[in-house]
Amino acid sequence: MSGKPRLHYVNARGRMEPIRWLLAAAGVEFEEAFLETKDDLKKLQTNGDLLFQQVPMVEIDGMKMVQTRAILSYIAGKYNLYGKDLKERALIDMYVEGLADLNELITSNFFQPADKKEEHLATVMDKATTRYFPVYEKVLKGHGQDFLVGNKLSRADVQLLEIILLVEESKPDILAKFPLLQSFKAKTSNIPNIKKFLQPGSQRKLPLQEKDIPRLMQIFH
Amino acid sequence: MAGKPKLYYFDGRGKMESIRWLLAAAGVEFEEKFLETREQYEKLLQSGSLLFQQVPLVEIDGMKMVQTRAILNYIAGKYNLYGKDLKERAWIDMYVEGTTDLMGMIMQLPLQSAEMREKNLALIIERAKTRYFPVYEKALKDHGHDYLVGNKFSWADIQLLEAILMVEECKPDILSAFPQLQAFKGRISNIPTIKKFLQPGSQRKPPADDKYIANVRKIFNI
């Protein structure tokens, strides 16, 4: 029996957000079961639903998939967002892994000690503008196409948009020196499935608030 | 022009080791260029070869590939070690991500203080015994095949062996409660390409020692 994919996670972005983005971009409707207490997590663990006792977990096509990368690769492959051959997939993977690194850097800011946060954030913004965004700007400039790889929408484009928006939440003018990323952002945001996901009321989650952290930590620790 | 893949990294395991394992298991000969000084590293940075200014870098099939997972995915796909369809790939990915997490914990140890190292070592042993190895033990028990996925040798098997040996370096009797994994270890170690890689003189690297750590710190100014 195949129904909609069902996402098991907390009601927050965390490690599930790229998965929500990719499903939404692929036009796939999905359900969400939110963990609200530690007991909710324990229940999944004791039921044997979590291969390595961890979430994210996505019920999809008869599997209880875990491990963010595995889930993203499966969805990308299934919905033709992973390039047409091994070499395109290699490029997509490189771009996506770079974005994942930047994402980790940004989200790790929350867990920095209060007196180190500002400095850490400045370092992260510096990396965004000197290590990561120039790469994608150059790729787009190099081929002059709308999408990063193979002149076709792929998971790399979806993830790049996600990260651009995330970084802009900390520094709204971060794309000032990246004209091609600016037009990439505009064009990609207008793709119907993505435009819908960017509207209020979608399943896209809000930025993490300080006040949410104790509740979330309590579930996982 | 197709030549042998060329690996750029330190003369140590780090993030390159899983790539060495996969190439070796696939029977692919490869060359290595070791970064031994800060100057060599800076030269590589300036050459524009490093997409995100980081190693590992693998020159393969005309590409300068970076990002460990991208490189591993490509090699696995190219040499038919990635299952026969999307669903087998999903299982291989899940299994590989688990062993990657476990090995990642071990990789951090040499960089930590003695106190943190002791604490984390205990955690690694506990996780290996209660979170990770039971999964692979059960998978093998349930289907009774020699290999984790699809009754065929895959990347998941190679990485599991790598993880088992790495944990055994921390605790030699770690497999005492895992008979399937013991048999698995014996079988996979005997596959000719892997057997060769496990012999002295191969390109397999030893565990990190103080000298290696000091060199890495020097090259990265940390």
From TrEMBL, chain A:
Q: CDD domains in the record, alphabetically?
A: GST_C_Alpha
Q: What is its EC number?
A: 2.5.1.18
List the InterPro entries hit by this protein, alphabetically. Answer: Glutathione-S-Trfase_C-like, Glutathione-S-Trfase_C_sf, Glutathione_S-Trfase, Glutathione_S-Trfase_N, GST_alpha, GST_C, GST_superfamily, Thioredoxin-like_sf
Q: Where is the GST C-terminal domain?
A: 85-208
Task: List the keywords (alphabetical).
Answer: Transferase
Entry-linked Gene3D superfamilies: 1.20.1050.10, Glutaredoxin (3.40.30.10)
Q: Which GO terms describe its biological process?
A: glutathione metabolic process; xenobiotic metabolic process
Q: Which domain of life is it from?
A: Eukaryota
Q: What GO MF terms are annotated?
A: glutathione transferase activity
- Keyword Transferase carried by entry: yes
Give start and end of each GST N-terminal domain: 3-83
The record's comment on protein family reads: Belongs to the GST superfamily. Alpha family.
Q: What is the designated name of this protein?
A: glutathione transferase
What organism does this protein naturally occur in? Answer: Anser brachyrhynchus
From TrEMBL, chain B:
For this UniProt record, the keywords arranged alphabetically read as follows: Transferase
Question: Is Transferase one of the keywords UniProt gives this record?
Answer: yes
Broadest EC class assigned to this enzyme: transferase
Q: SUPFAM superfamilies, per this entry?
A: GST C-terminal domain-like (SSF47616), Thioredoxin-like (SSF52833)
Q: Which residues form the GST C-terminal domain?
A: 85-208
Highest taxon of the source? Eukaryota
Q: What EC numbers are recorded for this enzyme?
A: 2.5.1.18
Q: What is this protein called in UniProt?
A: glutathione transferase
Gene source species: Anser brachyrhynchus
